[in-house]
Amino acid sequence: MSYWMSYVILVLGFVFLTKGADFFVEGAAAVAKKLRIPTFIIGMTIVAMGTSAPECAVSVTAALKNNNELAVSNILGSNIFNLMVVCGICAVVAPLAVEASVLKREFPFSILIAILLMGLGVVSMSVGRADGIILLAVFIVFLYCMVRSAQKSRAEQKNNDLDDEEIQDLSAFQCLIYIIGGLVAIVLGGDWVVDGASVIAKSFGMSQNLIGLTVVAFGTSLPELVTSFVAARKNQADMALGNVIGSNIFNILLILGLASAISPLSFNIENMIDICVLTIMSIEVYFFARKDFDLKKSEGMIMLIEYAAYVVYICVR
User: Fold this and answer.
1) What is the pLDDT of residue 137?
2) Which among 236, 270, 221 is positioned nearest to 85, based on CA atoms?
3) What is the rounded distance in angstroms from the CA atom of residue 50 to the CA atom of residue 20?
4) Candidate ranges 90-99, 162-171, 301-310; pick with highest mean pLDDT
5) Which of 75, 78, 186, 308 sits between 20 and 30 A of 247, alpha carbons compared?
């Protein structure tokens, strides 16, 4: 692949990833609307799964091509970007209200699995096939709990906020086309991003870890950024925060679980530092949210500044 063609492939890959995730989310959200599932549950599950699809496509494709460094760094970079930049920008746009239930369950769980990932790295400096199966098993339990929560909310609420005009009314056939078409675009986009990013990294002498933490992480996190930003502007804080927390949980449990089940993922010292950064930042944002049950503009600015400092650090290390 030529130098300039790699840029074209990378950009086209990001376009396919973003639009594919957009179509997938629209189709899935339309199905959820028909089933009358609350918006926070949509954000934690369907929207989170759709917006995490680019990371899944990139990391699984990288694992299939034995490009494990990119598979790991993409997930860590995306989670840090989601937490600090996506939440930070949304908080600057409008204060993000946080439900007490989120601070009791989902948010602490996202921190716990980051610590679990750190523990796996400390023990063996890798995530093997057995570890991947454990992560997938935990993901299935998490998804089951979310489904049960949705069923409970559906039973308690005859009139919920899913009549939002922002969620399209689609026929069953249209939902199928949106979901299948979105998934096809995501798979193609993921393959192109991995190929283009690998060539660019080699041409600049950049490590796969660095390009995964920056360029690829930013590109695959675009769906989360766009989805959460729009939700914040429309005062749907539950959807915005739920999307980020859900995506970060999906990224570690489902995507790293799948990738490591395909090909054991080796960690290096830089990966361990990045996992520590993710864990510390997660705890910080948790206490920001816990203080007044929201994320304020000033706290959003702090998060963005800290992310900028982190990017400078990974570029010079």
Assistant:
1) 92
2) 221
3) 9
4) 301-310
5) 308
67 DSSP assignment: -
How many CB atoms are closer than 10 A to CB 85? Answer: 23
For 155, other C-beta atoms within 10 Å of its C-beta total 8
- Residue count of the chain, please give it: 317
At 220, give phi and psi (nearest 5°).
-75, -15
Query: Which of 276, 53, 299 lies closest to 178, judged by CA?
Result: 53
DSSP 98-122: --HHHHHTHHHHHHHHHHHHHHHHH
pLDDT at 309: 95
Give residues with Cβ within 8 angstroms of 279, minimum separation 6: 111, 114, 115, 118
If one counts every other C-beta atom within 10 angstroms of the C-beta of residue 297, the result is: 14
Rg (CA), the chain: 18
Number of H helices, E strands in the chain: 15, 4
Give, as one character, the DSSP assignment of residue 36. T
- Both tokens assigned to 188: 């193609």
Please say whether the dihedral angle defined by the alpha carbons of residues 133, 192, 74 and 317, taken in this order, is positive or negative.
positive
> Contact, 299 vs 91, CB < 8 A?
yes
Look up residue 278 and give its two tokens. Answer: 């993710």
Among all chains, which residue has been given the structure tokens 């969620």? 167
Q: Read out DSSP for 203-226?
A: HHT--HHHHIIIIIHHHHHHHHHH
What whole-number distance in Å separates Cα of residue 254 and Cα of residue 93? 30
- Asked whether residue 157 carries a pLDDT value surpassing 60, the answer given is no
Confidence of residue 38 (pLDDT cuts 50, 70, 90): low
What is the share, in percent, of the chain residues with pLDDT greater than 90?
18
Across the range 169-178, mean pLDDT stands at: 81
Taking the C-alpha atoms of residue 69 and residue 208, their distance in angstroms, rounded to an integer, is 6
Question: For the segment 195-248, what is each residue's pLDDT rounded down to a tens digit?
Answer: 787 777 777 777 777 877 887 787 777 666 766 776 666 666 556 676 688 788
